[in-house]
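Exam revision sheet. Question 4 asks you to relate a sequence to its structure. Input first:
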Amino acid sequence: MRIIPALKILGVFWRMHRRKPAFLSFNVTNKCNERCLMCSVWRIAARELSLYEIEKLFIGLRRHGIKVVEITGGEPFARKDTPEILRVLDRIGFLLTITTNGTMLSGALIEQLNALKGLVQVAVSIDSLDRGRYAAIRGADMLPAVLGNLTSVKPDNLSFPLKVNFTVSRLNYRETSTMLDFVKRNGMFLSVFPATRGSGFYHRGDDPSLEPDEAERREMAGVFSTLSRLRKAGEPLWEYSGFYDLAAEYVLGRPVGMCDAGTLYLDLHADGTLAACADQSGLGSLLDEDILEVLGRIPSQSERLQTCAERSPCCYTCTFNLSITADHIADFIIESLKVRANFLIRRFGAKKSAG
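Answer key, structure tokens:
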């Protein structure tokens, strides 16, 4: 597995410490071959930036301090030139993460991803290991294809960590320990975060089947509290333990306060509109305006973000996880080193048993 240069990582932590924008999520396309209950991106038609426009915009974003770019969608690989987009961003010098539903992973694609020098991780969204439940949550009966693609990938041959994104709702929270066992057996990591409900947002859904009752909320909070303890113990969980503690409060309906949307984190829509976060309307189009002019509008969003935090809060890893990690960078590093050490010990043990 490739080691990301320490100076790049330190640069990210330094920006986080200073509460400067370091992370950007980029929807390369809104198109998707699934219809998830907790997402609305696939419902929104959007113009897609050309490769030339992407390169021009991201050279500017790099100059203004963005260090880490998450490539997402929709389903990013529904856009045929996404591997080329990744190569362009890698050449510019970004650290990269990818979020995909895994339906289009292939040996040829994995080879292209392995060649990216700045790839930090690839996340595959799997919200159940039960075929019927997966289809009900994600709107498509594609679990066999996803698992087939994953089992054909040999973690030892990857230059990047592979992880599962598990969005927890009342429909699947009892599967959390099963999902953790799954990633451990397959040499992967796990991210767990609560489904966020609401209408009029990009990354939310208002399907009533996602709404937990009070007893389910308490059980879900217990799941997140357990995840916090397991992360501290070195289990292969990706997020800082404090995020799982925060998620426990969130599912109980308690206030979680402000995040650092627009401060640590920005969102770029498929059409080139820059926003403070994935659930906010745009600050302006980077195609039509200077980047500094658009970024200069972030302070004017404070009232809107305050309203969001009070009336329709989320608990996404892209915002709240970054916020709480920025407050506890040393703890995060210590936890992560323990997780990585245990991961390598398990891998060595598996090799020894197989040999």
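Marking note for examiners. The chain has one domain: 6-354.
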